Amino acid sequence: MIVIVGAGLAGLACATALHRQGRPFLLLDAADAPGGRLRTSHRDGFTLDHGFQVVLSSYSAVSKVVDIASLQPRYFESGALLAHGGRFTHLANPLRHPHALVEDLTTTAFSLRDKLLLGALVTRTVMSSDSLLLSRCARRDDLSTQNFLRRFGFSALFVGRFAEPFFGGVLLDSDLGTSSGLFLYYLKKFSTGRAWLPAGGIAAFPAQMASALPSNSLRLRTRVMALDIKNERACGVTLENGEHIAASSIVLALDEPTVCELLERPAPERARSVAVVYFKSRQSIYPNPCLVLPESGSGLVRHFAQVTNVAPEFAPRGFHLITASVLDFSDLSDESLAHAVKMEIAAIFPNASASLEYLETIRVPYAVPAQPPGFANRKPFPNLPAGVFAAGDWASGASIQSAISSGLDSAHSILNPLYP
Question: Could you tell me whether strands 357-368 and 272-281 are parallel, antiparallel, or unpaired per DSSP bridges?
Answer without folding.
Answer: antiparallel
